[in-house]
Structure formats: structure tokens, C-alpha cells
Automatic annotation (TrEMBL):
InterPro entries: Wax_synthase, Wax_synthase_dom
Entry annotated with the keyword Transmembrane helix: yes
Domain Wax synthase, first and last residues per copy: 219-321
Phylogenetic classification of the source organism: Eukaryota, Fungi, Fungi incertae sedis, Mucoromycota, Mucoromycotina
Sequence intervals crossing the membrane: 6-27, 39-58, 64-84, 138-162, 174-196, 317-334, 346-364
Protein family: Belongs to the wax synthase family.
Protein's pathway: Secondary metabolite biosynthesis
Official protein name in the record: Wax synthase domain-containing protein
Protein keywords: Membrane, Transferase, Transmembrane, Transmembrane helix
Cellular compartment(s): Membrane
PANTHER family for the chain: LONG-CHAIN-ALCOHOL O-FATTY-ACYLTRANSFERASE 3-RELATED, OS04G0481900 PROTEIN
GO terms assigned for molecular function: O-acyltransferase activity
Membrane topology qualifier: Multi-pass membrane protein
């Protein structure tokens, strides 16, 4: 049983702990040693972990968002306080500029496609290295915000016509309709994340006061049309959000890759012909570790965010590990066969949709029972009445929860 508190109290407690942890990193080690920082960080991290588990607020969407942000932040902070300093032999410290990079890293691309450091649009403009055709005006960004807002509003208004039992019935009795509903729901989620990304980008540009232009490559879409993915790998590595990418890569992928490669080197010289296989296995295990960490994160989110009767232990982990195995399977197939023929992308899309349809209920079950899409009712709407009138007139397929 959780303690009900106001939204202001819930937010103040949660972000107070978060702010203390991140600001503690910026204190110079001459004033506060690395060891002292770690000692102070432990109870603060436990606070971030348990606040969403102990307290609840009236706005369900924020409770879910805070639990997701909290567990992702905990893993990243463990990385910054313990793993990275020990691995690189340096102190527990972030400069204000490094803290700014960390804060915006989930949304902003600070490295080029070749992995080298990437200048910001403001820096490129000051140095004359960005052409007029590459620069985009802030007004174009404002229009993009409006487009994503209206798309979110329209799809959210439509999704809110469905109750939990209606969606359960679609799963059991009308699989084709559930597949269509899932695609539309996925598009709605993508719209929400892209709206969040564009609003955050707009705030960054306005408050930085450095330029009224931006480089689109620096600010990619948070979720570039996941419903168009042609492989499971394409879905997770390019089209689903990468907000926790730095955490997954640094906390899971790199340590597992290094460990398996170091272990493999002990035996590779005995079996030279197996070096390629060992390298592939190291990469596969590292990829699976990312999905396992993601599964753990979502187990926590489901546990603390939903009612106990809705949460089924292990379902989130099963979903993510199965997708990790699918990514490994795709890598094996692509390395073993040359897959280049007409209709390959269409076949790949069908494979993604079929595999997603089979596994999606494992992930979505607690969200479905809790009618998580109804959190969109908290945002200002201008299209709800229009969409619901179309539903009542029978112009579009919809639910009965109006």
C-alpha cells in the first residue's frame, strides 16, 4: 500500500534527491573526496529507488515517468560514481560542461556518425562551418512542435475511446483488430516522445541564447517511425527511443564485451580458427546484456507503477530477452546468407510485425490493464471533441469508452 501525497510533494522529494546526486558530482575532489561522495550517494540513490515504490501521486502518468527516469538515472549514476572512475583511474567528478552534456545526451547527438566529437550548431555557425542549407530556423522547429502536438492529440483522443476490457477482448477474439490497434498505439507513443524531444530542443535553443538556428543532425527524432522497422535490430537500435543508450552501453554492453573478449583471449590462441566465432559470441552476449538490463528496468517500473494484480513477475524480462535473442538470430542469418532480393524490406517488416504481435502482450499486459493510454487525458486537447464526434457518427473505428 502506497502513501498518497500531492504531486508537488512527490515531485519535490524525487527531484530534490536527483539534484543532490548530480550536483554532488560537480564538487571538486579537493573539497569532497571521491570516497566521501560515494558514501553520501548511497542513501540518495536508495531514496530515488524507493520514492516511487513508497509514494504515489494523483497524476498516474507522472508516477510512471518518474519511476522510469529514476531507475535509468540510478544505473547511470552508479556508472559515473563507481564503474567509470575505477575503470579509467580517475576521480568522481564532472565539470559543469560535462554535466550539461550528460543532461542533454538522451536527446542530443554530441558525436558524429564516425564517433568523433561533434560541434554544436552554434559553434559551427560561429566558425563559419555550417552552410545556410544545413541550418534550420527556430520557426521551423516551432512548426514541428505543433505538428507533433496535433498528431499526439488526435491519436491520444482516439486511443482514449478504448477501455481496458475492450483491448483485452481484441487480444482474445479479434487478433487482426488488435494488431491494427497496436500499430496505432505505437504511433501514438512515437508522437508523444517526438513531441517531448522537440519541446526540449526548443527550450535548449531559447535558453542557450547562442543562435536561433539548429542542425537537424544534432537533434534527431527521438522515435523515427518505429512502425516502419524492417528488422528487430532496426527497431531497437534506430527507431525506438535511445534515451537510456549511454546507460546501456556503458553499464552493460562495454563491460560484458570487455570481459568476454578478455576471457576469449585466454583460449583463442589454442583454437585460431575459432577467433571469428568467439568475437561474434562476445558481441552477442554484450547485446543480450543490454536487453537484460532493459528487462530489469522495466520489471522495476511495472512493479512500482501498477497494482499488484496487474504485475506478473518475469514478463518484462521475458519480452526483452526474447527480443535480444531475435537480434542475435538476425545477426547470425545476415552473416550466413546474402539477403538481397526484391521485397526483402517488406518481408522484414512482416517478420517484425509477426514477432512483435507474438511477444507484445508480455510487455503490455500491465499497461493494458491499467489503461495507461488514458494518461493522455491530462494534457490540453483541442481535437478530442472532433475525434469523438467522428467516432459517434461511425466514420472511424473506435472503442466505446467515450
Amino acid at each position: 500500500m502506497k502513501w498518497q501525497v500531492s504531486f508537488a510533494a512527490f515531485s519535490g522529494l524525487f527531484f530534490g534527491l536527483e539534484a543532490a546526486l548530480w550536483l554532488l558530482l560537480t564538487l571538486r575532489t579537493e573539497k569532497v573526496s571521491s570516497r566521501t561522495k560515494r558514501v553520501i550517494a548511497v542513501p540518495l540513490l536508495l531514496g530515488v529507488l524507493f520514492v516511487p515504490a513508497i509514494f504515489s501521486c494523483p497524476l498516474r502518468g507522472f508516477e510512471l515517468t518518474y519511476s522510469a527516469f529514476g531507475i535509468g538515472s540510478i544505473l547511470r549514476l552508479v556508472d559515473l560514481y563507481w564503474i567509470i572512475p575505477r575503470r579509467e583511474g580517475r576521480q568522481v567528478y564532472l565539470s559543469p560542461d560535462q554535466l550539461s552534456v550528460e543532461a542533454w545526451a538522451p536527446l542530443r547527438r554530441t558525436k558524429g556518425r564516425d564517433g568523433t566529437a561533434k560541434s554544436t550548431a552554434a559553434e559551427q555557425e560561429a566558425e563559419g562551418r555550417i552552410s545556410a542549407s544545413d541550418k534550420k530556423s527556430i520557426w521551423r522547429l516551432a512548426v514541428s512542435v505543433l505538428v507533433w502536438y496535433f498528431a499526439t492529440d488526435v491519436l491520444g483522443s482516439w486511443l482514449m475511446t478504448f477501455g481496458a476490457q475492450e483491448v483485452v477482448d481484441l487480444v482474445a477474439k479479434y487478433p487482426a483488430y488488435f494488431a491494427l490497434w497496436s500499430l496505432i498505439a505505437m504511433a501514438g507513443v512515437a508522437c508523444v516522445f517526438n513531441l517531448y524531444g522537440r519541446v526540449s530542443q526548443l527550450c535548449y535553443i531559447l535558453f542557450s541564447l547562442r543562435t536561433l538556428h539548429y542542425d537537424p543532425d544534432e537533434w534527431p527524432l527521438v522515435m523515427p517511425h518505429p512502425y516502419l522497422a524492417t528488422s528487430i535490430s532496426d527497431f531497437w537500435s534506430k527507431r525506438w527511443h535511445q534515451i537510456f543508450r549511454r546507460t546501456w552501453v556503458s553499464f552493460a554492453y562495454k563491460p560484458v564485451l570487455r570481459s568476454t573478449q578478455a576471457f576469449a583471449k585466454l583460449y583463442a590462441h589454442h583454437i585460431p580458427s575459432a577467433r571469428h566465432l568467439i568475437a561474434s559470441m562476445s558481441s552477442a552476449l554484450a547485446s543480450l546484456s543490454v536487453f537484460a538490463v532493459s528487462g530489469f528496468m522495466h520489471e522495476y517500473i511495472a512493479l512500482v507503477s501498477f497494482q499488484r494484480e496487474y504485475y506478473k513477475p518475469g514478463r518484462q524480462m521475458l519480452f526483452f530477452v526474447s527480443h535480444g535473442l531475435a537480434v542475435v538470430f538476425e545477426a547470425i542469418v545476415s552473416q550466413s546468407f546474402t539477403l538481397s532480393f526484391p521485397g526483402r524490406k517488406l518481408l522484414g517488416w512482416i517478420w517484425v510485425m509477426a514477432f512483435g504481435y507474438w511477444t507484445f502482450p508480455w510487455f503490455f499486459q500491465p499497461y493494458m490493464r491499467d489503461q495507461i493510454w488514458h494518461i493522455l487525458s491530462h494534457h490540453p486537447t483541442v481535437c478530442k471533441n472532433f475525434v469523438h464526434n467522428l467516432c459517434k457518427e461511425g466514420w472511424i473505428w473506435c472503442g466505446k469508452d467515450m
